[in-house]
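Per-record layout

source: Diaphorobacter limosus
name: DNA primase
length: 648
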Amino acid sequence: MSIPQSFIQELLARVDVVDIVGRYVQLKKSGANFMGLCPFHGEKSPSFSVSPSKQFYHCFGCGKNGNAIGFLMDHAGMGFVEAVQDLAQQTGMQVPQDDQSPQDRERAAAQRQKQATLTDVLEKAGEAWRKHLRDSPRAIQYFKGRGVSGQIASRYGLGYAPEGWRGLASVFPEYDSPLLEESGLVIVNAEDGKRYDRFRDRVMFPIRNVKGECIGFGGRVLGDDKPKYLNSPETPVFHKGRELYGLFEARQAIREMGYALVTEGYMDVVALAQLGFANAVATLGTACTPDHVHKLFRFTEQVVFSFDGDAAGRRAARKALDGALPYASDTRSVKFLFLPSEHDPDSFIRAHGPEAFARHVGEAMPLSRFLLDAAREGCDLGQAEGRAHMLSNARPLWSALPDGALRRQLLAELGELGQLPATELASLWAQDGARHPGPAGAAHNAPPFGDEPPWGQEPPGSWPGDTAQTTRPWRKSGDWNGKGGRWRREEQRPAQPPLPRTPVAGRADHAARLLLSHMQFLEELSHEDHGLLREQPAPHGALFVWLEGQLHEHGPQSWAVLREALAGHDSQALAERLMSGSHAQTEGDEAELRAELRGLLNRMLIDALKQEQNALIAAAAQDPTALQRYRQLQERRRILESHGQPGS
């Protein structure tokens, strides 16, 4: 999206940087300017100056400076377009969208209005639950028992959803409003249409985006009921794969402490904040994604993942590694903290103290070591087969890293472990990557005709040296199966140049075309579908991640608008190639196109399940649970294969 410079200048002329900064920083008048504690680094004496005459802020301690747009980008973690839209909304200005059709502009405006309305509804529910907490001794005792003070409860907006099926009816007189269902607060029974509250008799954790808007909730039971934790569903404002619990509250502490601490649960975040680690955030009941990591790197250059020390924690760390690899540049630090199996971060600090926990954080395993450990897990490096297996495991991990010194150093270390010089390993992987995939088990250099003798060998009765004369000097006449035939020499003909071939479109190509042509289809996909698309190998995965970001920021857009927004992006060449030529036309009945996309995704899911099953078979000897997981995946495959369309 291209925003005219003239509009940006007019916008900055209308906003007051003192008001914008003052929402996040306590400012006091000091001469012609305003002063406060810098939000970008820890300090006790104010060195952060905001000038109303120059509409500029500057910190004399750390050097941070900029205008109102820059402040929202640096402090609130917004993108440029998001910051401009936020300021424009506050001033009543309309961001120019000349490159969009009236229908697209109307749809985007409706989407923004819907998001604003849903966050208002969620905030109203959160306010009611905060009041209920004050009137619930049982809920207060739960938090006290976990060591949570009233100050921390207020900071994180903790609340309590009382018992009863329709508790929110006292908060929302129009309990039948569709907004309550769309926001995830109310569940509608599909059979009889009856409505009831999603969260009942649970302590509540509001989930906020980086602007501080309430976008969802997590609820925990006070007893032993199941499920222990319950999250808001995916909604137009809440996407688990892109949001982190506690990030809004942790921003300042992350900057002051120099790193973000990623944990697995709401209570981990709250308890850690109570005990001096206010820089903690948590994933929302899902594996850490590249979007999570990307968002964290807006606020810091160091991320430490802290997981429980059991097998589940190790698996969660492995998924976090996959999410972190694309962003592990030479200037960033990613580490993994593994606590003893009997502890989570909360229990560890209570047992051993904040100093011991801080020491463990400092000694956390760097990404490079964890990558090497993950690659050689289950491999016997004392045997050639084990070393080859290790290198096979390492290749996709290493390939996901951005080019730089870290990537090249790891290539050398992997080569040393695999007893291959780094140059040979790089050459081997480059050859494998360039090789066109063929049928399983087929040799890449197999001759195109099954009745030809192997190259470099002579058929019966030939003279030595004849086979080197031409590319295909021999044919075997007779039956197609070779019975009763004989070899004969063909005429000497100059080799013909290969004809240009149109690349065969893969499933990821076709799925990308459908989504670039009909972006609204993205809104209908499940979390599993989104994860599948994001995890596609480069360059497709990056395109799907970008497309999701555009949907989250602007709503569904036409290909014409997306093409302009892609200018200069790494995915531009792929998208333009896919959307060029007659094969790119995806017009037709939308119901049929949706079914076509569903079929493609089902086939891609089946392929992913097959790969996971193969890995489970290999791990069955060491992991007793592997076969059980294999059977679960087999049942999932059966359902997909019986209901899914084959795709192409």
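summary: The chain is about 45% helix and 10% strand. The first strand starts at residue 28 and ends at 30.
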